[in-house]
Structures are given as C-alpha cells and as structure tokens.
Amino acid sequence: MGKRLFAVLLALTCCAAGVTLLRAPDNAALATVSHWLMRAWPLLLVLAGLVRVSNYLIDRQPRSPVGGLVLSAIGSILFVMQWRGESFSLATVSKYWFWFLLAFVMGRVLLQYTHRSFDKTTPRVFSPASILAMLLIAVSGLSSTYLSRNSQVVAQINSRLTQLSANVMGEFITVADDAPQTFTLSAKGSVLIERWNGDVEIRASELAQPRASLIKRIRATDEAQARALAANIQLQIRTNGTQLEFAEQAANVTQPFTTQLILELPAAMIAPITINDVRGDVT
Description:
The protein is α/β, with parallel strands linked by helices. It has helices at 2-23, 28-40, 42-59, 66-84, 90-113, 128-148, 151-169, 223-230, and strands at residues 171-176, 181-182, 190-196, 198-205, 211-220, 233-240, 243-250, 257-266, 273-278. α5 packs antiparallel against α6.
C-alpha cells in the first residue's frame, strides 16, 4: 500500500510540475528550470532502474535485476546524448551499444550471484533466451558500426527499401516536365523515335518552332517521392546529321515507370518521322 501511494504521489507531483512549467513560459526562472529538466530528464530513467534493482535486492520484486539495469543504462545513454547534443542515428548506436550489452550481462550475473538458498529455482546465468538476446544486441551494434562507416551501403539499403515500399504500397503517379523543350528541324531533317517506354503523340500546332514535352508515370508512395524519382528521367534530343533522335534517359531509376512523348510540330512543317519499338500507343 505504501509503495502504491508513493508512486501515485510522485506521478501527481510530476504532472503538477509539468503544468506549472507550461503555464508560465515567460518566467525566466521557470524557463531555466524547464531547460535543465529537458536536458536531465533521462536521469529519471536511471533512478527508476536503480529503484527496480533495489526492490529486487530487498524483497525480490521484480524477480530479476536485468530490467532495472537495462533501464538505467538506457537513461544514462540518453543523458549523455542530451548533454553532448547528439541525435539518434547509426553512429550513436554504434557508439553506445556495448554499454547496453554490458548492463544486460551485469544483470544476468547479479541474478546468479544473489540467488538465495530458499528461492524456488536456481537461475542460469546464460540461458538460451539470454544468449539469443546478447547475440541480437551484439549483431545490431556491430551492424550499426559497419553501416555508419560505409555510407554507400546505407544509401543502397535506403534505395532498396524505397523501391520495396513503392512496389508494395505505391501507385502510378503522373508527373509532367516543368517546361517543354524547343528544337530546330531543318527543311531536309527527319525525326527518329525508337525503343520508347510508353506512348508517343504527335500534334500539329500553331507554334512557329517545334517542341517536345515529356509526361512521366512512375510508381511511388506519394507525389513527393514520385517527383524526386521523375527528376532522374530526362528527355534527350540528339542530332545525327540532319536527323533528330529522341530518347529517354533514366539514370538510377529502379521503380516501374512509363513515359509519354508529345511532339508539337508547326502545321506547315513536313518532316519524315520514323518510329520503332514503342511499348505504348502511337497517335
């Protein structure tokens, strides 16, 4: 009963302190206190973990000190990160994972050597579950260390995850070029379009100069991602003698996509147009 009452009073005190700090943001003294509390709050986790360990040592509630030591380790790591101004990243995981593992091992050792003869069961220092947990912590830490030192691998993983997310949850989103490209076609010139991944549309227009525009349809999870991916799909117009060759270039685009090429030619212009190997419609 006493422990529960203490916990309730502590929770009410923390809530009252938080409300006071929020309702008086202009008070310089309270602002200073709030600043230091924001930096030192992980110490509450350290204290909570130590309380759990002491309760285990006194009356075996909880039944293991592992949770308390791990909680204190997490609080200590967060406090150091707050004090140094570090953010959560692979680099911070690679820096502090060993201390997390050490707290877990210390908890298991403490559980073994504080065993009392009248306890019902004799604990094992390294049970199969604890060995698996330590392996997971070590593998995660070593992997974070490796990835934090190899940014190219991280970029490839992020690219694969983005592609997987787009393929599973995405849909085809249409993105148009910001501005059409104008080009010059001589009187004896011709146009060649081949190996085009999408539709080709040729229009007669009142424009004085021919122009080409590209509409892209790419699978993505949202419009922002679609625009970022579509930026890598470009229309290229190459000159080969008197012939203009239209091609699409998609560098580092692994998501499924199609494009629509729209050619707008002056109504009075007569030019031979050759179209080969188009995967869409030609109009």
